[in-house]
Amino acid sequence: IVLSRLSVEDSIVIGVGHVDETDLSSNALPVQIDLSGEPNTLQLLERVEHAVAVAAARLSVKVDGNTIPAEKTDIAPYQAAFYSHNGLSQSPADYVSVECDLEVHLLQDKENAAVSIYYATALFNKETVERYAGYLKAVLANMVANGGHSVTTFDIMSPVEKTLLLETWNKTATEFPADHCIHQLFEQRVEKAPNNVAVIHGEHVLTYLELNCRANGLARQFVEADPKAPVERQAFIAKDSAAVLLVTDVKTEIPSLLNLPVLRIDADNLPSLEINVGSLRPSTSAQDTAYIMYTSGSTGLPKGVMVSHCGIARLVINNGFTDIGPDDSVAFSTNPSFDPSTFDVWAALVNGARMVIIDNDTYLDAHRLAEALSHYQ
What is the spatial distance between Cα 371 and Cα 220, in angstroms, rounded to a whole number? Predict the structure, then answer.
């Protein structure tokens, strides 16, 4: 049961051996035990008894060593073994040689029984094996107290370990501005450091103030669409999201199937950035949808996932796995229609960092990508 829990497998192969006072050899039979179907204690014991009998019946089978491929002879048939010792006493030992990764030895006489666990020190440490021993003790207690229940329901973790896994290690909650929209968080950075670099694309550089001016001149809710995607996918996304306008550059060809008004932006000939276009004050909340991201549609039609403002903030601010600040650069190398692009963009812009746009040709060339990352780090 313990091995099944640790390996997440219903079929377990262990070595089973018996040692008594007249035979001190420790040869073990590989026994396959089936734990599928949620057996109770009695049912599992019957399965084990049957499996041992089947294995024992094969003792008389002679195997010609020449029929076993040479490359297979060093592969152990099992990694764990159980031995039963009758009439033997237990004594401490500093070091014991083991024949497999993990060995459980039951020593018993007419009045007492004791269990010892030996292990390969190259694979396990003392603390791990002590934890396994605790699992075994819990299993035995459950077999006695809850024998009529399925063995899959046995609770084998100690209260201390359960608290560690479910509470101590799971204390991942951190504070973040859950009541702010993503554009508000960006605008806070604009106010704090308007002249800091926000975006780098080749030789083109925009400060936070300049980027904010351009963004306010084109402030709309958006749905990312990959211009390289199949036309049918683009048309589906446009229809499904009820898009009313398509914004693109001056070069991209727009398929007629999209049937949408098109606004083309010439990034090289925008109005002067000396005019400070004030920030908009849309009536949106942090729980409102910031954008819609579409799945690949591999299981049918693409499905639109509505991503909230606070969801983006949770991803990129005080997230517990990365700390990004004004001295950092973030590579924007992901296709904008792919959800990781959310992190590439907003992890930089709401934390005051620089977003470095990596074009597709550079991204697909390992040498050029390495040079770009080294240059902008």
Answer: 35
- Long-range pairs for 96-105: beta carbons < 8 A, 24 or more residues apart: 99/26, 99/28, 100/15, 100/76, 102/129, 102/132, 104/80, 104/136
pTM of the model: 0.55
**Residue type for position 39:** P
Percent of the chain with pLDDT over 70: 84
Compute the distance between CA of residue 134 and CA of residue 191 in angstroms, rounded to an integer: 58
Map residue 134 onto helix, strand or coil: helix
Q: Would you give the distance in Å from CA 80 to the centre of its chain?
A: 29
Q: How far apart are CA 232 and CA 226, in angstroms?
A: 12
Cα distance between residue 20 and residue 109, in whole Å: 11
Q: How far is CA 195 from CA 70, 284, 376, in A?
A: 70, 27, 18
Residues 6+ apart with CB under 8 A from 231: 255, 257, 258
Joined together, the tokens standing for residue 138 give: 């819990």
Instruction: List, in sequence order, every residue forming a beta bridge with 355; answer none if it has no partner.
Output: 199, 330
- Quote the Cα angle for 34-79-93, to 5°: 125
Q: How many CB atoms lie within 10 A of CB 256?
A: 8
The DSSP letter of residue 257 is: G
Amino acid at the residue 286: A
Q: Return the minimum-mean-pLDDT range out of 202-206, 246-250, 349-353.
A: 246-250
Residue 308 bridge partners (DSSP): 289
Strands of 303-368, DSSP E: 304-308, 329-332, 354-357
- Both tokens of 219, joined, read 């402030």
Query: For strand 354-357 and strand 329-332, is the pairing parallel, antiparallel, or unpaired?
Result: parallel
Residue with tokens 């390289």: 228
Say if CB 182 and CB 313 are below 8 A apart. Answer: yes
